[in-house]
Structure formats: structure tokens, C-alpha cells
Amino acid sequence: MSETRSETWIILGATSSMARAFARLKAEQGARLLLAGRDMAELRRLAGDMRLRGAAEAEAIAFDARAPATFAPVIERAEAAGGMISAAIFVGSMPEQAAIDADPALIEGVVADSFTGPARFLQMLAPAMEARGGGTVVGVGSVAGDRGRLGNYVYGAAKAGFATYLSGLRNRLGREGVHVLTVKPGFVDTAMTWGLEGMFLVASPEAVAASIERALAKRKNTLYTPFFWRWIMLIIRLIPEPLFKRLSI
Amino acid sequence: MRWKETDYAGWGRVLSAHGRMARPEKLAALKAALAEAPAPAIGNRRSYNDAPLNSGGAVIDMTRLDRILSFDAQEGLLEAEAGIEIGEVARLFAPRGWLPTVMPGTGRATLGGCIAQDVHGKSHHQDGSFGQHVESVTLLQGERRVSASPTRNKGLFRATMGGLGQTGVILSAKIRLTPCPGTMVRVTESRAENWDEFIALLDRSTAPYVVGWIDATARGAALGRGILEEGELSPTLEPWPKGARRVPLDAPSFALASPVVKLFNAAYYKRVPAEGRIRERPIADFFFPLDKIHDWNRLYGKRGFYQFQCVVPPGEVEALRAIMARIAESALASPLAVLKRMGPGRAGHMSFPMEGYTLALDFPARRGAEALIRALQQMALEAGGRLYLAKDALADGETIRAMYPEHGEWAAICERADPARALETDLTRRLGLRSTT
Fold first, then answer.
1. Interior angle at CA B254, CA B253 and CA B255, nearest 5
2. How many domains does chain A have?
3. What single DSSP character describes residue B352?
4. Cβ-proximal residues to A206 (8 Å cutoff; 6+ apart), any chain
5. Which CATH number does the domain housing residue A128 bear?
6. What distance in Å separates residue B29's CA from the closest CA in chain A?
7. Radius of gyration (Cα) for chain A, nearest Å?
8. I want to staple B79 with a disulfide (CB 3.0 to 4.6 A). Which of A197, B70, B176, B219 is the partner?
9. How far lies B317's CA from each of A174, B203, B222, in Å?
10. What are the pLDDT digits (tens) for A19-54?
């Protein structure tokens, strides 16, 4: 597709399986890819894969949501490529709630990975996107951000913060022709959820990536994926708090 | 590394296992998992039997290590991690003019799985087996990374082709692709009215891709009737077909009751006109006809099914006819039955192929099926034939070792590669394959 050919996609957290599936779709469309993350050896392996699948260019670049010094070089690299800039944010971390209960200091990392890191990055990127008057932001949150639940409320709180941030960013960038999509996946079959108890209706990373692609084509604002999570979360949000606080869902 | 405590099965679902499974998405995670628990690697579990099972132990699911590492567009050499699916390779490279030289019956088989079973396809009579087109393979033996090729570490290479994953965890491999002018196959379908005609058609065929569907319910004069499909790659370029449908539930047992299968087969046979027909079909449809239905193994119900596949030498056509007759009498077979010509090509000590004819049939797991399959195994053995270790779920070690004369040499190489026998699977234990005596 000629539209993506001139476009550079920054993929934050590129080594996650959801990011990999999405980047592969973009690669097959001939996009330029900046694969950002911490494991450089892995990112270089991925970049090779993306080039061989059709990416116009694919480059590995260091990014750590907890190290803001790594942010600017990623943005500079994208600007240097010329053309439109888009970004897809797949970073996030989810230690078990019990681990956080035992060591409350873990909260800072979760919030940096899932909220403040990507928000600060997008805040730095926003002027470049505004200047170009186009491009796309895909922000991956989680249905866990829709309501604080016993099992993962710190992760949920970080994702809720990120969703609210994206809503505001949409309000700002929408005026300049930049599309911001908030993605709220339910259970996805990734390394993060592998072996966890209580998983159901689990979607593949490829299915999630394809649904993001369709939502972008329709210029949706918020995507629940798979779609039924919109209804599941509607019900969960409607449960009155006096009742909800006694539930362990 | 997080391990998942899980129940899992081979494709036939008759045999299953319970144990720990890791699914690394990065090389570092694979190494961490192997450091915690040296364990056999598995792919998409398209082997029908216990080849991908390790009851009570650990296994490593390789499907997320699926990156393409290099491609030489002049020579058609592709290097990729073991978890990539062969159908994905076809989808990505056919439009660029290259196709895996050997395409197994399902595109969901992984590169690692294709090597570990030295799979064959519809072109075996001319192209040989999968392993014959492997240029090199990289294995993880504990912490050690070892490369093998037909010229370097030759013995290890041969033992790895069709080696059931026993020589090390297959990390990546370089394979030779074949030029492919388009994304379609020109398919000629002809009816064979009976066994003799079918064999004659197979012998006469000069097509590069040949496969026969056989009506396993036809008896008497119609015994062995079926449809021969001959394919050649066509220069037509069409978009790759979209994803698969799903089977939402396990089918009830009456779905494959004998009268239903009989009716289905009669209709399937007659759909091809008596004078035959020629069609262009997408590569994926021709090579992987069942992949259009995701989880089609659920059509056999929750008890699962067996697949019997044997190959017999060219001079044993009569023995194979007797096997076919025995199956037709039993009325236990499903509609999925395949008859093919096989060439001599094989890449490893434990590779299935031998020159001759191969017959493959599914049997829903129900009363009589096991006894029938055991009888068929005996008939195949007496005909100097061989059973396929990607399919067999019922044989004993003595039978298999008699069919694989190079077994001892193979087991000795495995012993050096994996002295702790950490890579054993339910299959190798059932058949005592790692025993060097």
C-alpha cells in the first residue's frame, strides 16, 4: 500500500508478541519500522525478519520506558527518516499483585512501563506529529484499566492512567489530523499471560493485530479486542461499587 | 521463565500428556527455559501421535521463535527459526517466486517439525523428502550451539533429519526453495474406478505433484476407487486465500458412522465428472486442503482418532491391496484416505520414505479400530513396509526397529548428542527408540 510506504512506524516494546504481529502487518505493507525496546540482540533479529517480510527499512533501536534518556534518540531517528511518523505503544509490565503487595516499590516500575514512560515519550513526539499534520498513534492499554480489580489493580491503574492520557492526546492531536487509537485487549495469548490461572476467551496476538488494523482503517477511537470485551467491560463497569467491592473477579 | 502446567495432545488426540510447557518468545527465554529444565522441543503438534508429548516432564513450545533470518533471492535459500510454519513460508515467498520444495499435507507444520519428521509431500517421487533440501541446521545441545550440514557434522545431520528432536533442540535451519511462477496450481482430477486403475494411473503420471484420494468404503469390484489429483505450478498470480474457519465443538460420534461416510464418499467421488476435469486452485488449497478448517481434528469427537500410514515397496502392490480390502471390510475408516507413489528419497536414519506406495487413513477411536490397525501394521511389516513415526500410536518397539534398519546407528548418535536422554518423548519411550541395543 503506497500510503504506508512513506510512513515510519515507531514500535515501542517491539519484542512483545502483540507488537511483533502488528509490525509484521506493517512490514508486509512496505512501511519503515523503528523497532524499539531493551533486548538489542532480539530487536536486531526481529528487524531482519521484518525486512525479509517486505518492510522498506527496519531498524533496532534502544528504548527503555524507565530510562527517559533513551526517548529522544528514537524520535530523532524517526524524524531523520522523513515522511509521516506513526507510533504504536506496546510497552507495559504486569507483576503479580501478590508480588506488589510484598514489595510496594514495584509500583513505580509498573507505572513507568505502562503509563508515565509511554506518556512522556508521546508528549515528546507530539510536536513532530503536529508539524506533519498526520500520522497515527496506537496506544495499547488493557481492559484491566476499566475498573480496579482485586487481582491486578496496580497494573489496571497504570493502564487507566494511560487511557485517560490517550483520550486527552486524541483531543489535542485530532485537531491536527493525527489519529489516536486506544486499544483495550482482553486476554491475549502472550508471554505475559502464559500459564496464568483463570484465562478464558484468549485471543491470539495475530487476531489482535488484525483488529487494530481494521480499527485504524475505520478511524475508530477506542477498540476493545476481541469485540465482546466491550460488553463484558460494560457490565463490569455497571456493577454498583457496594457490590463490586465484595467480588473477586 | 514461567511454565504452564497443562494437558496437551498430538493431532489425533487419542494420546495426550500432562506436564509443564514453556513457550519462549525470545532466544534468551529459550536458553533460560533449557537451563531450568532440559526438555524436548515441540512445534504445532501436527504429529498425530505421542511424538510431541512428554508425560510428567517438560516440553518447550517453539512456535513463537519464528523469525526469518536470511533469504538469498538468487539461490532461493531461506534461513528461519524452527517455529515458523511452512504455510507461512509459502504465503510470503510464493508471490516472490519461491516455494518450499517439499510441502507437507498441512501448512501448519513448523520448520522444526518438518525436519524432526523428515516429512514428505505430493512431489516425493521427484523431490524426495524435506530433509534432502535442508542445507544446514542449528541445534542447541544444552548450552552448546552446534551446526550440522550434509558436509559438516554429517552423522549428526543425518540423525537430525527425521530424528524426532532427539539430537538437540532445533533452533533454526536453512532450506532450499524451489522456483514458483505464480500462486496457483493447475490441477487435473481423474476418476479411478478401482484399485488396478488407480495404481496404473499413479504409475503413468508424470506430474510434479500427485496425490490420490481413495474411497475407503468401496468394496468388491469398486475396491480402491478414488480420485487422482495431478498438479503443476501455474504462472497465475492471485491473492493468497484468507484465514480458516473454526470447528466450534467436538463432533458427535454419529457424524462419522459408517453409513454417513459411505454417503459422503460416494458424493465426493461423483463430484469429479467421469471424464475428469482441470481447474486452477490456490497453492494453499491444493497443498493444505484441510487447513481451511481450523481444528478439524475436533470433527472426530473428543475421543480422537488414529491415523494409519504405511509405505510398501513397489513389488508389494498386492499386499497393499489386501490392506485396503481389510480396511474396506471393517467399515471403520473415515473419508480421509490418501494413496500416493513414493520415491526412494530420504534424508535420515529414521526417515519414513522408501520407494513404493504409501497409504494413509484416519480411523475414529472406537471399538475395533485398534485391533484393525494392529492387524494392518502386521501386514505392512510382512510386506517389507514401514510405519510413519509422525502417525503411529499403537506399534511396539520390536516392530518399528524391524522396519528401520538404521535405528542402531541413529540411537548411538543420539546418545552422544543427548547423553542424559533429556529429549526423550512419550514416543521414544513407548518404542524404546533411544535404546542402542
1. 90
2. 1
3. -
4. A21
5. 3.40.50.720
6. 10
7. 18
8. B70
9. 72, 11, 17
10. 999 999 999 999 999 999 999 999 999 999 999 999
Q: List the 155-194 stretch of A: residues with Cβ below 8 A of B.
A: 190-191, 194
Please indicate whether, in this complex, the C-beta atoms of A195 and B69 are within 8 angstroms of each other: no
* Residue B272 and residue B369 share a domain: yes
Measured at the CA of B330, the angle between CA B326 and CA B336, to 5 degrees, comes to 90
| Residue B234 identity (one-letter amino acid) | S
Same domain membership, residue B122 and residue B260: no
CATH code for the domain in which residue B374 is found: 3.40.462.10
Give this prediction's pTM.
Answer: 0.95
Strand partners, B273: none
Please tell me the number of Cα atoms within 13 Å of B314 on its side-chain side: 9
Peptide bond preceding A127: is omega within 30 degrees of 0, i.e. cis? no
Taking an 8 Å cut-off on Cβ atoms, the answer to whether B71 and A16 are in contact is no
Task: For chain A, say whether B32 makes contact (Cβ under 8 Å).
Answer: no
Contact status of A195 with chain B (Cβ, < 8 Å): yes
Q: What angle do CA A29, A33, A38 make, to 5 degrees?
A: 140
Its domain, for residue B141, covers: 68-181
| b/e burial code for range B321-348 (CB count within 10 A of at least 16 → b) | bebbeebbebebbbbbbbbbbbbebbbb
Tell whether B177 and B188 lie within a shared domain: no
Q: Do A48 and B70 touch (CB under 8 A)?
A: yes
Burial track A101-121 (b if 16+ CB lie within 10 A, e otherwise): eeeeebeebbbbbbbbbbbeb
Alpha carbon of A42: minimum distance to chain B alpha carbons (Å): 7
What number of CA atoms fall less than 13 Å from residue A32's CA on the CB side? 14
Give SS3 for B234. strand
> What is the tens place of the pLDDT at every residue in B141-198?
988 999 999 999 999 999 999 999 999 999 999 999 999 999 999 999 999 999 999 9
